[in-house]
Amino acid sequence: MNCTRIAPLLDAYAHGELDAPTAREVEAHVTECGRCRASLRGQQALQAALAQAASEDRAPASLRARIRRRLAAETGGAPAPERRDWLLAAPGLAALALAGYLLFAPPRSPSSGQAAGQARVVYHVAAAGNVSAVLRTLTNHLDATPGLKVVVVAHNDGIEFLLAGKTTLDATVLVSFVQQMGLGAVLWLAGDLLWWRRAPMLAVAPWWIGFLTLTIAGERLELGRLLKPGRLVRRAFDFAVAVILAGLALSLWRPEWGHRVFGAGLLALGAWLAWNDIARHTARRAGLTRYIALSLLPGYLWLMLGGGVWLTLAGRLDDRLIYDAALHTLLLGFVFSMIFGHAPIILPAVLERDFDYRPWLYGPLALLHASLVVRVVGDLAGEAGVRQWAGLVNVLAVLIFIPLMAALTRPRPRAGV
Known about the structure:
two-stranded antiparallel ribbon; 6 strands; 68% helix
């Protein structure tokens, strides 16, 4: 062995960390090489000096014992994360249990004693377009029969208004759990619990993405009742949601495979929304209705693309650029498409202002999608500079959209003016 090979081993030899054959080779070389022998003596002298300094400055044994007792009292003993790892599984198990109940429980029957009475009239509304007509009929019944009871039951197959004769006027609203939005809330809580447990962000992010995705999908599902989807179509939606939940739960034990299943569920849900959402029909209209539809439909394509990234590139999510593509195809492409599309309806309603639609809204929408395409291409090509500049344009699109929305809203005229 020469000096080049021996020099890096001297420190380990001085600390007794080498195996026996290597230690014998070092000893043989040091015996013959004066330079390496001097270097070894320097290492040994430094080691002895450090040991002496540590012994001189060491706190008394009684003080060290008191400190250990105080730390144990304040922290509840030594940390034992291995005994609490089951907490990481709790969110996934809770989500799967709730999913099984909500997705596959039979529809609630409104006829099982919920409106007991002598004469009962049932109005079934399969689509929201019939609600106003039914409400007018209900008003006539209530005016003619003061002692009438009204029961409104919402369930998977539609809405039913039940009238039953009673001695006192009573109004009861029985509303079933909004399944997908409720599941979204569970995923949000599960993600918060994982984050609180200091799980890696790669493990937490899919749960928060699931919360946003299921909340939006649940709202679109409600509007989709106008198209009267069949049972098979609805079951396809439920299956996509179940795959998402299964992927999230699996990711707690097998992250890569869980992320792949999660991506497959997102891909299936995006395809379902693109084909079955009412936006596919309203895109043929004009004005604000068309703008909303053309905001939503590209969002579903981004949801499919994001699902494809999670499905095919789950093993490379530790790559910063791949992770960027996996997140922003969903959070910018899908979620912000939904925000851009719904903002002209929701914000004026919340602020109690009128909205004057203008085609200018297509500007920031097109800028968002175009810059996001460039960003994702840069991510997948490994071009960090492209991703950075495209990300700045993403932000610019949002910053243009906000004041444009403010400029297109105006106060409502006062009543009587």
